[in-house]
Specification:
Length: 313
């Protein structure tokens, strides 16, 4: 045996003795019973078997079970505590839309037509009127302006206008209409002649009548018993007596019943009568009185009257 082998053998023997001593201590054996160093080639399992067979050792039919040392388990790091979930913002239910104001229904006006059907101009029976007479009261100045400004300078009929108004205003009103209109407009004077395309406005505080021949007008004070000066009934009635041909009468917005009796006289001579509708009236009094009496041949909106009149040839 070489020196190196001797050293290795000696170290193995010493290690074996140390193991025997440890096993003996665990098993409660005295060192006296410790086996001698194992010859080369013996194993630790043989040593343990010999120790159990030694006098005074542990005996038994079953081989003892030697508990093997448990492997050292690395400590498990503590599980990090989960953060509580961020609070979810509470979603509010959408607010219902604010109710929108419902616009008030706009009154609609039916297309202009005759009461018995057909075109409004059909109520003239194909005849050009010899005279156009118009009566108005409350709301009349604006209504008259709307109509007269729509007429052409070549309008083929003479026109008489009766507007309830004090004498201090009728001259200025006539001058204003004359500036705005294509036709000629003037405050009537005694003996003014009727001419096509010229409108004569009855002066306030007086009565306007047609002469017996139906060619000129007379301006008189009139009876104090008559409520209105000028009066629509007076002018319409005088036209019914003086003109034997076709007359077109128009009753516009106004309070009361002035014009109804004059329309009755005109109807006896087959005149045509148009009235303003309720929707476009400032006061639906005078037109309603004529219509309720069954005297109106057509009911028209004020915005249509001027246009339809302008179509008369």
């Amino acid at each position: 045996m070489s020196l190196q082998q001797s050293i290795l053998f000696a170290g193995s023997a010493v290690a074996t003795l140390a193991v025997h001593a440890a096993v003996a201590s665990v098993l409660g054996l005295s060192t006296a019973h410790m086996p001698k160093p194992l010859p080369q080639g013996d194993s630790l399992s043989n040593v343990i078997r010999v120790s159990f067979s030694q006098p005074g050792g542990i005996t038994g039919n079953a081989d003892p079970v030697v508990a093997e040392p448990q492997a050292r388990v690395a400590p498990v790091p503590p599980t990090p505590r989960a953060k509580p979930p961020a609070p979810v913002a509470r979603r509010e239910a959408p607010k219902p839309p604010a109710p929108q104001p419902v616009p008030a229904p706009v009154p609609t006006t039916a297309p202009a037509s005759a009461r018995r059907g057909g075109s409004v101009l059909d109520t003239l029976n194909g005849e050009k009127p010899r005279l156009l007479v118009i009566g108005a009261s409350t709301g009349g100045p604006v209504a008259l302006q709307n109509i007269l400004t729509a007429l052409p300078a070549s309008f083929p009929c003479p026109i008489l206008l009766v507007q309830h108004m004090p004498g201090t205003f009728t001259a200025a009103f006539a001058e204003r209409l004359d500036r705005l209109c294509k036709i000629r407009v003037k405050e009537a004077e005694d003996n003014d002649t009727l001419r096509a395309g010229v409108a004569l406005l009855a002066p306030g505080g007086k009565q306007m009548l047609l002469d017996g021949r139906g060619q000129s007008v007379s301006i008189i004070e009139g009876s104090e018993k008559i409520q209105y000066k000028p009066s629509v009934d007076v002018t319409f009635g005088s036209a019914a007596r003086s003109i034997k041909g076709k007359i077109l009468a128009v009753v516009l917005t106004g309070m009361g019943q002035d014009g109804r009796e004059g329309c009755k006289l005109l109807k006896r001579n087959n005149a045509t009568i148009w009235t303003q509708n309720e929707q476009s009236c400032v006061v639906y009094g005078m037109p309603m009185a004529v219509e309720s009496a069954g005297l109106s041949d057509a009911v028209l909106d004020i915005k249509d009257l001027g246009k339809i009149l302008s179509e008369i040839r």
